[in-house]
Amino acid sequence: MTDDWRALDIANPTDEHSMLREMVRGFVTDEVEPQALEYNRDEKFNSDLFRSLGNAGLLGISVPTEFGGGGMDATAVAIINEELSYSDPAFCLAYLAHDQLMVNNLAQNGSQEQKSRILPKVCSGEWIACMAMSEPDHGTDVLGMETSAVQRDDGCWVINGRKMWITNGSIDDEGTPADVVWLYARTGTDEKGRAEITTFLVESGTEGFSVGQKIFDKLGMRASNTAELVFQDCVVPPENVVGSPGESMIHMMRNLELERLGLAAMALGITRRCLSIMNRYASEREAFGRSIRDFGQIQRHIGESWAEYRAMRAYVYDTARQIDLSKSGNRLDSDGVKLFGTTISKNVADRAIQVLGGYGYVGEYVVERLWRDAKLLEIGGGTLEGHQKNITRDLSSDADAIER
Ligand SMILES: Cc1cc2nc3c(=O)[nH]c(=O)nc-3n(C[C@H](O)[C@H](O)[C@H](O)COP(=O)(O)OP(=O)(O)OC[C@H]3O[C@@H](n4cnc5c(N)ncnc54)[C@H](O)[C@@H]3O)c2cc1C
To answer: Which of 103, 140, 182 to mutate to test the pocket of ligand 1 (most atoms within 8 A of CB)?
Structure first.
């Protein structure tokens, strides 16, 4: 046996991954960081910068190259999310909604015709996409969804209902909708009373589809747009149904694994930035004639944050390594890594504010924004309680997972 495996950096396992990280880091320094404070303050989505991610080859990173994507894997997704969130988690949330919630989903589950027609547009940035699952009255309880679709005699589907909290649902403040929505709707009820769910591709301009409202005044993630979407007798042609009617639970659950990894990778970026800021500040700031890093209580903030950051980095990239985008089967770890990582990122951001004192409390010093953004990660893509519930259920049916 050789010692080569010791050289493996799990966060950059191949040269391609290292080059991707380096490229995104450069893009973040030059393009993302200079606009982050302003767009957060103004609650604006930077759609021009977003579209330029297409030129950089980052939209559709997991899509096969024949459709204009990057042809990469879940580790690449984690790298991009980590690096974008080091600077601007809200901008990254818009990226996640497009790249992971819609584009990857289409690449994995769409028909050849749907992929050829839509993927080149969403990979280039010509189209901005979103995924609509949550509703005003149904979030965690997703199978209770009320948005319904009924097929007409001519084969078209008529959709009625409302979707809530949809990232990229509106791309501006004037109610311009996303160019394409990956929409989950109820098309039947099984014998246990649960929704049979079908996926529809609803394109902007479809009659009966509109933005209800852009949601303002969010605690964090303010530079990503969140909207309510309305479907009122919205007619969608049969060629815009993804897969077979009633069978979308399978791809919904599979894609949630990537979403949860993606959100955990965002938490990792937030954690690294907060640790970096508090570490530097602790050397620069003096109190009582000494550097504040000489104080034991400050050492506790830095020491614990370092240990948690390192554990989280290993868990994020170990989970990414195991995810095969074409299969489900990593629910325990995708729930686990999000449960673990998101609360750490909030706690490390909190410590960073504490180490910076009053300066930590104002926008210019970044950490207060990251603290606000981190909180969303405990809610979106599954709440902490949802992850606890899933993990406990999965360990009941597969107790051997603990011993493997
Ligand atoms: C900024 C933002 C962006 C979002 N983007 C999107 C998006 O792009 N697409 C999309 O579809 N959705 C999106 N969401 C919605 C998000 O996924 C939901 O908010 C989330 O799933 C929780 O649903 P809820 O808000 O309805 O809360 P609820 O499900 O009503 O939960 C309320 C509380 O009850 C708890 N709870 C519920 N059920 C249980 C249970 N069985 N056991 C224990 N506790 C339980 C929850 O954990 C929570 O603490 C976004 C939300 C936000 C805030």
So the answer is: 140
* CA atoms of 224 and 23, how far apart (whole Å): 23
Domains (range + CATH), the chain: 4-128 (1.10.540.10), 130-246 (2.40.110.10), 249-402 (1.20.140.10)
**Candidate from 131, 379, 388, 392 with most ligand 1 atoms within 8 A of CB, to mutate:** 379
Q: Is the CB of 392 under 6 A from ligand 1?
A: no
Cα–Cα separations (whole angstroms), residue 28 to 49, 198, 300: 11, 37, 30
Q: Relative to the CA of 163, which ligand 1 atom is closest? A: 11
pLDDT exceeds 90 at position 78: yes
Please, which residues have CB within 8 angstroms of residue 303's CB and are 6 or more apart in sequence?
Answer: none
69 CB-contact burial (10 Å; exposed 0-12 / middle 13-18 / buried 19+) = buried
Whether residue 82 is predicted with pLDDT greater than 60 in this model: the reply is: yes
Q: Which residues fall within 8 angstroms of residue 397, CB to CB, at 6 or more apart?
A: none
Cβ 123 under 6 angstroms from ligand 1: no
Task: Point out the catalytic residue in the list 257, 259, 308, 368.
Answer: 259
Angle at 378 between CA 377 and CA 384, to 5 degrees: 140
Q: What span, in angstroms and rounded, lies between the C-alpha atoms of 177 and 168?
A: 8
- pLDDT for 1 beyond 60: no
Q: What is the pLDDT of residue 4?
A: 84
Measure 260 CA to ligand 1 centroid, in angstroms.
13
pLDDT at 195 over 90: no
Q: Ligand 1 centre from 277 Cα, in Å?
A: 31
Query: What pLDDT score was predicted for residue 5?
Result: 86
- Report percent pLDDT > 70 for the chain: 100
Specify whether 259 is catalytic: yes
Short-list 273, 255, 282, 292, CA closest to 371: 273
- Regarding the beta carbon of 379 and ligand 1, being less than 6 Å apart is answered yes
Ligand 1 atom closest to residue 169's alpha carbon, by position in its atom list: 8
pLDDT on residue 328: 87
HSE, CB side, 13 Å, CA atoms: give it for residue 187: 23
Q: Is the pLDDT of residue 245 over 60?
A: yes
Q: Is the minimum distance from the CB of 133 to ligand 1 under 6 angstroms?
A: yes
